[in-house]
Amino acid sequence: MTTSPHPSPAGARWRNWSGLEEAVPQRVETPTSVDAVVELVRQSREARTGVKMTGTGHSFTAIAAPQHTLLRPEGLSGVLDVDREAMTVTARAGTPLKELNLVLERMGLSLHNMGDIAEQTLAGATSTGTHGTGGTAAGLAAQLAGLELVTGTGEVLRASAQENPDVFDVARVGLGALGILTALTFHVEPLFVLEAHEQPMRWDRALDAYDEMVAAAHHVDMYWFPHTDRMLVKQNVRTDIEPGEQEPPSRAAAWWEDELVSNTVFGGLCRVGSRAPGLVPRINRVAGRALSERRYSDLAHRVFVTPRRVRFREMEYAVPREVGLDVLRECRRVIDASDWRIAFPVEVRTAPADDIALSTAHGRDSLYLAFHVPHDTDHTAYFGGLEPILRAAGGRPHWGKVHTRTAADLAPSYDRFDDFLAMRERLDPDRVFANDHLRRVLGD
Ligand SMILES: Cc1cc2nc3c(=O)[nH]c(=O)nc-3n(C[C@H](O)[C@H](O)[C@H](O)COP(=O)(O)OP(=O)(O)OC[C@H]3O[C@@H](n4cnc5c(N)ncnc54)[C@H](O)[C@@H]3O)c2cc1C
Fold first, then answer.
1. Integer Cα distance of 119 and 426 in angstroms
2. 54 C-alpha vs ligand 1 centroid, how far in Å?
3. What domain range includes position 220?
4. Distance of CA 407 to CAs 391, 414, 438, Å?
5. Helix (H) or strand (E) holding 437
6. Is residue 313, in this structure, part of any structural domain at all?
7. Rounded to a whole number, what is the distance in angstroms from the first to the last CA of the chain?
8. What is the Å distance from ligand 1's center to 256 Cα?
């Protein structure tokens, strides 16, 4: 089974991956060239109808929802250029990350870091600030060396640190509001192997050791099983093992761990938990105990990515790194004191400060706290109960995940918010890329 959303022919419904958002576009096109994108933008501008290019619909919000014309990404896919001297790769914007990973692997190259799936398109993933985890390894948009986009007036702009740097500065996390990206250039490095160490840990020990672990391992990912004292801690360290010499987990071991944490068995447990919420704490204790310590090594992109077949809804906030663990403790206090029964682990990741105007890690080292419920479960009490804590800590919601914030209360969270709005005014004066969600988070 794949994690792509349902296909959406003209007049049919567009749905995001979680099924939480849907829309009925009036027109569906699959442009295969930059010229075709320019023409479609011009037509939309003249007709005063909106146009939206979607990725694979993996955002949990309606940020990608088309309100008139939907441009599908499949026609803009594939690698365009590899520059081994500059160590960059340029690909068309609709290329799925997983395809880029395979092409890079064949060339002995790799991205530095990524999130925990690779289904998304390059443009979709960067546009909402998709991140992985790492004390020094930043999110995908911060790995960009250049981009090409079609603005709301139909102009084709190339941007990098040298060319249109003011556009590059802002458009790397553009929320789909500044233009239609047609190509993206990423910094890459030689293909590398990560050594993964996964171990169950008690809550206190994991939090006490967190700073040390982040300093020692390149990528640390923690999962707390609500209603228990148990965590699963994953630490991935870069090695000098030659690609080809790695020792991936046996198929059976990989199946057991991946299915338990993320997929079939876990999905079954969630269904039992939905029908009998009182059983959730016991289920979480069993799940937390069933996980065992394991070590393996594999190509970096295979270690970063886990298949996700159980659909869910997610809220994730970036809070300042220095207060992050206290915020996590406060969230736990509220969960413990509530009558919610939370079957999904709470995920804890980190990222270093970057310089992109609307990146959730802009200007500060960040801790990311992510909360999930099954895709068909009402999330409002749980997410709504925790959001004030995250917000009070100066938290910034992930642009692709569920939150209730609006332009007025997001603006103070970003010292470059007005720069972003000014760039939007310049690149999309008629708001051909606007939809209801963007009007909510950016204003009219
Ligand atoms: C199972 C799952 C796991 C996830 N894991 C992570 C994770 O580890 N880390 C993390 O940070 N996030 C994660 N996410 C969130 C996900 O990475 C983001 O929501 C991402 O934006 C989805 O990419 P997409 O291709 O599906 O884009 P969509 O959701 O379809 O679109 C996202 C935005 O990009 C815009 N866009 C798409 N294509 C273009 C284009 N060509 N030009 C301009 N704008 C464009 C859209 O208009 C929209 O505004 C996860 C989501 C799911 C469902």
1. 32
2. 9
3. 193-397
4. 14, 11, 9
5. helix 436-442
6. yes
7. 39
8. 28
The enclosing domain of 328 has a CATH number of 3.40.462.10
pLDDT at position 277 is 75
Q: How many Å lie between the centroid of ligand 1 and the Cα of residue 311?
A: 15
Contact 347, 328 (CB under 8 A): no
Q: pLDDT, tens digit, for every residue of 251-269?
A: 766 666 666 655 655 666 6
Residues with CB under 6 A from ligand 1: 17, 52-59, 63-64, 73, 93, 115-117, 120-121, 123-125, 127-128, 130-131, 175-176, 180-181, 308, 398, 400
The alpha carbon of 125 and the centre of ligand 1 are apart by a number of angstroms equal to: 4
pLDDT in tens, the chain (444 residues): 333 344 445 557 899 999 999 999 999 999 999 999 999 999 999 999 999 999 999 999 999 999 999 999 999 999 999 999 999 999 999 999 999 999 999 999 999 999 999 999 999 999 999 999 998 989 999 999 999 999 999 999 999 999 999 999 999 999 999 999 999 999 999 999 999 999 999 999 999 999 999 999 999 999 999 999 999 999 999 999 999 999 998 776 666 666 665 565 566 666 666 777 777 777 777 776 667 788 999 999 999 998 887 899 999 999 999 999 999 999 999 999 999 999 899 999 999 999 999 999 999 999 999 999 999 999 999 999 999 999 999 999 999 999 999 999 999 999 999 999 999 999 999 999 999 999 999 999
Q: Provide DSSP, 105-134.
A: HHTTEE-S---S---SBHHHHHHTT-----
3-state secondary structure of 366: strand
For a mutational test of ligand 1's pocket, the pick from 16, 128, 133, i.e. the residue with the most ligand atoms closer than 8 A to its C-beta, is: 128
The sheet with strand 27-29 has its strands ordered as 27-29, 69-71, 51-53
Rounded to whole angstroms, the Cα distance separating 280 from 373 reads 12
Q: Does 388 map to a domain?
A: yes
Residue 308 lies in a domain: yes
Distance CA 429, CA 63 (A): 19
Closest residue (by CA) to atom 12 of ligand 1? 130
pLDDT tens per residue across span 400-434: 999 999 999 999 999 999 999 999 999 999 999 99
Please return the burial class of 28, using the count of CB atoms within 10 Å of its CB with bins 0-12, 13-18 and 19+. middle
Can you give the pTM of this predicted structure? 0.94
Kindly give the number of the ligand 1 atom that is closest to the alpha carbon of 178. 43
Domains identified in the chain, total number: 1
Q: Which amino acid is at 44?
A: S
Residue 433 forms part of a structural domain: no
